[in-house]
């Protein structure tokens, strides 16, 4: 790596460390103000509050990093421009693209870092933060709301429909169970009725029930009473309950798990749109680091340099920050359109990256090498 590239990268990462700490600090302060009523009501210990924010910090860092990257690009290149270092580099024959390449490469590297971070760190820390807030601070039972349901009806893989009066997904038990097996024509070919069932070794074991077989006219052709009847299932007990999660909880779910949820929901006949949007968002949002770097890297080169260029630098700074916030808002609007079905999940999530990436490329094309 050339000395110039190392120097530009050093300035960028120094600015990135500072802006990241500032944004994380502001986010934590805003969240602390929002959580203050809960803390005053439930009187948690300082240790619990500290642990809660320690577990929340990785998610906060990932959320604020794109804007921190944008400001770091402006700060680092703006600083070089104010001291006429950019002019000196270009007078020595160093092109704009050669100066910008290290920063864009670093931003692309951050995309990979965030993708890995989202899959390894956040799925570990976010559930613990929610557990501390819900169970330790608010003193609510986390498992009851998550694993117990009355009157559950679900379409399952293998063209089956399950109905149960009560499901305990935590212990893997059901009461008053009806399982319908549908044929290729949509009619019922088999029905299992049992007062209880339990989950064991990837099988649902039905107890003391009746198994009926039907012809195409819906007439019973044969039936058997059984003490126990085991059926293999792809769906575990928890898969029968579609948990209502907060947005950050869904984003903290690993991509492999989200993909499995989407496939299972499709087989069950449920709408997986919310999970599909969040799956694409987990891939698309890390690229915000590169897109915003692309937007910001051209600004210092489009305005005059030197001490007299402070006003123009400030104008460019404001313009770029406004564009950055529009980009974040565009992502929010796009994902909302994806969740309500106005746009497909892919288009709703990736449209912001495409449009603002093209805008960044256009701005770079206006810079003279």
SSE order and pairing:
Elements: H1 3-42, H2 46-82, H3 85-91, H4 96-120, H5 122-137, H6 142-147, E1 148-156, E2 160-168, E3 173-182, E4 188-200, E5 203-214, E6 220-232, H7 247-251, H8 255-267, H9 273-284, H10 288-297, H11 299-302, H12 310-339, H13 345-365
Antiparallel strand pairs: 1-2, 2-3, 3-4, 4-5, 5-6
Entry keywords:
369 residues, alpha+beta, 6-stranded antiparallel beta sheet, elongated
What does this structure look like?
The protein has 369 residues and is an alpha+beta fold. It folds into two domains: 3-136 and 275-365, no CATH class; 158-233, no CATH class. It is 61% helix and 18% strand. Strands 1-2-3-4-5-6 form a six-stranded antiparallel β-sheet. Helix 2 (46-82) crosses helix 5 (122-137). The protein starts with a helix and ends with a helix.
Distance from N terminus to C terminus (CA atoms, Å) equals 21 Å
Order of helices and strands: HHHHHHEEEEEEHHHHHHH
Trace the largest sheet across and list its strands.
1-2-3-4-5-6
Low-confidence stretches: none
| Largest sheet features | 6 strands, antiparallel
Radius of gyration: 28 Å
The best one-word shape is elongated
Structural class: alpha+beta
- What is the helix fraction of residues, given as a range? 55-70%
Q: Mean pLDDT, nearest integer?
A: 81
Q: Which range does the strand content fall in? A: 15-25%
In DSSP terms (H or I, runs of 4 or more residues), the helix count works out at 13
Number of strands: 6
Number of domains: 2
